[in-house]
Amino acid sequence: MNCFEKRIQRVIYKHKLFKKKDTLILSFSGGPDSVCLLNCLCNLNYKNIILIYFDHQLRPQNELNSERSYIRFYAKKFGLKLKIKKIPIQKVVNKYKLSSETVGHLLRKELLQHYAEFFNADYILTAHHKDDAVETCIMNVLKGSFFSVGLQLKNITSKVPVVRPLFFSIKKQQVDYCKKGAYKYSSDSTNQDIKFKRNWIRSKLIPLLNTTSPKLITHLQDTHSEFIKFLFQQDHVQKNYTLYLQEFNYYYKCDMRHVTGKSEIDINRWVAQLLYKLYEIKYTQGHLKKVLNRYVNLNKLHIQKITIALIKNTPGKVVMIPKNIHVLQYNKILYFYSDEMLETKMTAQKLTKENRLQNLNLNITCRQLTNYPKNFLSTDRSCFINSSHDRLIIRFATKEDMIIPFGKTSKQSLWQYLAKQKLNVV
C-alpha cells in the first residue's frame, strides 16, 4: 500500500463512505482518474465492484476501440462485471435542443442510478476530484447558478448514494499514481475541444486566473467549502418547514407565507427547490424522456425575481421561467401555470345564479342589483358587470378580447387594460 492509497483509505474510513462488503458501481471511462480509483480500490481489497462504461458515440471508432480494450483489460484483470452502454448523444441533442455536455451528464446520472438499482448496489462511485469541483464551481458562477452546492464527497439525496473517494486529490496526483504503478489508461480527444465550456474553463480560464491571481482558485475553493457548510447548517433549520406544491387542473399552488420572514438567501433556496420540484412533477412521461424534458437552466435572475416579489408582496407580479411557465405572486402565495395548461383544460361554461367550478376550486354567485351601491369598485371577492344579456359565459381571457370599462365609451383591449391596472390576465 503506497502513500496515495493510504490517503484514500483514510478518507473512506474517516467519512464512513462504504465498506468492503458493499456492492459498488463504478463509472469507469478508462481515463487516468477512473483507472487510478479502480486500482486503488482493488489494491485496498475492495473487490465487489461493477464497472459501467458509457460510449457517447462522439469520437472516431479507432479511438473508441482502443479505449474499450483498456476497459476490458481491467475488468478481466480484477475479475469484475462490466457493462458497456451506448448513448446516442448527438441524436438526443438534436431532439431536445440541449448541449452535449448537459445531455451526457443527465443520461449518465440517470443510467448509473438505473444500473445501481438493477445490480442492487449500495453505492455509486465516480472519480471526480478537487479540480473537477473547482471547474463545476466556476461553471455555476458563470451561469449565475448560486443555489447548487456543486460536487460533494458524498451525495445522499439520490436513491443510491453517489460517493467520490478522490474528492480531496488533484488530477496531477492521479496521473502520477498511474505512471508509478505503470497503469495504462486512455485519453479522450474531446477533452481538448474548447467548444465545450468545461474544457475551456480547464484549459484557458483557470491557467489565466492562476497567472494573474495565483491565490484566486484557492480562495474560490475555500469560499465554496464554507458555503457548503453554511447550507448544511441551514438545512437543519429548514427541516422545521415544509412546502407543499398543490396540483389543480389548471395550475399549481404553493403557500410561502411561513417562510417569507426568513433571510433572502433562505427564500432563494426554497424557491429554487420549489421550481425544480415543479418541473419534476409536470414532466412525468417515460423515465429518460422525463429527465430530458424537465431539465431547465434556472439562473439567479429567475429565482431572485420571485423572491423579491414574495418579500415585497407585490400583488399580481408575474415572472416568466423556462418552458413558458408563468409564476404569479399574490398574498405571498405562488401560482404556477402555462398557456398550454389553460388552453387544453378550460372550456367556456354558462353562469347561473350559483356556480361551483370544481376544477378551479371556486364558487361564483351571480346576483342582479336592485339598488345601486355608492361606487362600483371591485374587491378580491366581488366585481360588477353591466350587461343586457341574460346569459353570461365564463372562460379564460384571450388576447383578442375587448371590453368597455366603466365610465368609458370606447372599447379597449382587455389584456392592455388589465396590464395598466397591474393585474395578471388568465
How would a crystallographer describe the biggest sheet? Answer: 6 strands, mixed
Number of strands: 17
Global geometry: elongated
- Uncertain regions spanning at least 5 consecutive residues: 235-240
Spatial extent as radius of gyration? 28 Å
Strand composition percent: 15-25%
Give, in spatial order, the strands making up the sheet with the most strands: 3-2-1-4-6-5
Distance between the termini: 68 Å
Structural class, from helix and strand content? alpha/beta
How many helix segments? 14
Q: Could you explain the architecture of this structure?
A:
This protein is an alpha/beta fold. 43% of the residues lie in helices and 15% in strands. The chain has helices at residues 3-14, 32-43, 61-78, 89-96, 100-118, 130-142, 171-180, 197-212, 216-238, 264-282, 287-294, 300-312, 339-345, 414-420; strands spanning 24-27, 49-55, 81-86, 123-125, 154-155, 162-163, 246-247, 252-255, 317-321, 325-330, 333-338, 349-351, 354-357, 362-365, 392-394, 402-403, 412-413. The strands form 5 sheets. It has a 6-stranded mixed β-sheet, sandwiched between helices. A hairpin with a 2-residue loop joins strand 10 and strand 11. Helix 6 crosses helix 8 (197-212) and helix 10 (264-282) packs across helix 12. It is elongated and about 95 Å long. It starts with a helix and ends in a 6-residue tail after the last helix.
Write the layout of secondary structure elements.
Blueprint: H1 3-14, E1 24-27, H2 32-43, E2 49-55, H3 61-78, E3 81-86, H4 89-96, H5 100-118, E4 123-125, H6 130-142, E5 154-155, E6 162-163, H7 171-180, H8 197-212, H9 216-238, E7 246-247, E8 252-255, H10 264-282, H11 287-294, H12 300-312, E9 317-321, E10 325-330, E11 333-338, H13 339-345, E12 349-351, E13 354-357, E14 362-365, E15 392-394, E16 402-403, E17 412-413, H14 414-420
Parallel strand pairs: 1-2, 1-4, 2-3, 4-6
Antiparallel strand pairs: 5-6, 7-8, 8-11, 9-10, 10-11, 12-15, 13-14, 16-17
